[in-house]
Amino acid sequence: MEENDVVRSLAALAQGLRLQVFRMLVVAGPGGMTPGAMVERLGVPAATLSFHLKELAHAGLVTQERDGRNLIYRAAFAHMNALLGYLTANCCEGVEEAAVSCHC
Q1: What is the pTM of this model?
Q2: Can you give the pLDDT at residue 90?
């Protein structure tokens, strides 16, 4: 994963509602969710959700697929795992005491 991708992803997640949406999609798993279901659960206007979904998609954190008349959003698990891998790639390198308390 390139550093620019990491920065874009972390910036997208550094906003409260976007973080909630992303976590909701992670919990939903591969089945994903429709915007209507997300609006209902979050209690936010559809336009607000749409803006934040666009930002998450631009960061590569969510995907969108049309299923008939519905849009389905899913967490981009491969991207999420690559981001986590980037963040933990050199965890505790060279510091044995830190490695004991680290769960990488």
Answers
A1: 0.87
A2: 78
